[in-house]
Amino acid sequence: MNMASLSNTLSGQSKEQTRGFLSRLKNEFLESPLASNVVLGFILAGFEKLVELDFACPCRPLYNACFAAAYIVLPGVVASVVMLCIQGCRKTSDIKHRVLLGIVPFLMWLILAFFDGQYYACAKTYWSGRFVMVDKSDHQKWCEPDNSTLSQENMSHTQQWYFHSQLIGLVILVISTIAFGVQQLKSKYCKCCEQDSQGQAIGSNNNASDIALTEAPVE
Question: In angstroms, how far is CA 71 from the centroid of its own chain?
Fold first, then answer.
């Protein structure tokens, strides 16, 4: 065997292994809710970083809340719709379980958005100004007021809103984790109870069959 044929053989094996790996990865993504949620979680985290760089609060009291709410809610809704479509491809009749898993990306985005803080701070801002960075060493941004005499007071409010936003994100994270854990334990407990009841039913049927054979008249 010359070097050319050996190289072609190795290249063919490498392509087959790559196709097999991609096929297994695709099946795992479609069949495993955990895997699909983890992948979407990483995608959302990267997307949030991009949005964070491009986000610019209008710093107008009439528009701040609506503008910030769109950033907080809409990406999570889109991610949940994508997850529901992915879960719809799975062969399962447990609609309730599928919907619960579809909500996970929305909660992930809420946690990321509130941990960032600038969307919530923008929504709470009630004065007009310019959206600037607080400090170059700190990535926090705020609406610097047109009235410079109120700058210090308004900056203090903004920093409090950043803290409140991160606190909300932490609460959502803790509650979601507890709820997901309880749901998983409940699901496993119900499966164990179902298996036990099926085993008892099979045992009762076998005992009934044995009794019937024992009591049958001998000709």
Answer: 16
Tokens for 186, please give them: 């409940």
Does 196 reside within a domain?
no
Whole-angstrom distance, CA of residue 129 vs CA of residue 121:
14
Tens of pLDDT, residue by residue over 149-196, are 778 889 999 999 999 999 999 999 999 889 888 877 877 776 666 666
The C-alpha atoms of residue 46 and residue 53 are separated, in whole angstroms, by 11
**Is residue 188 domain-resident?**
no
Give the span between the Cα atoms of 211 and 147, in whole angstroms.
Answer: 93
Letter for the amino acid at 55?
F
Cα angle 77, 80, 81 (rounded to 5 degrees) comes to 85
Do 76 and 103 meet the contact criterion of CB atoms below 8 Å apart?
A: no
Q: Is residue 87 over pLDDT 80?
A: no
From 8-12, 35-39, 111-115, 161-165, the region with the lowest mean pLDDT: 8-12
Count structural domains, the chain.
1
10 Å CB burial of residue 48 (0-12, 13-18, 19+) is: buried
Cα–Cα distance measured from residue 127 to residue 61, given in angstroms and rounded to the nearest whole number? 6
Of the candidates 55, 170, 160, the one whose C-alpha atom is nearest the C-alpha of residue 114 is 170
**Residue 203, pLDDT score:** 52
Residue 94 lies in a domain: yes
Domain membership of residue 21 (yes or no) is no
| Residue range(s) defining the domain that contains residue 112 | 31-177
User: CA 30 to CA 170: how far, in whole Å?
Assistant: 30
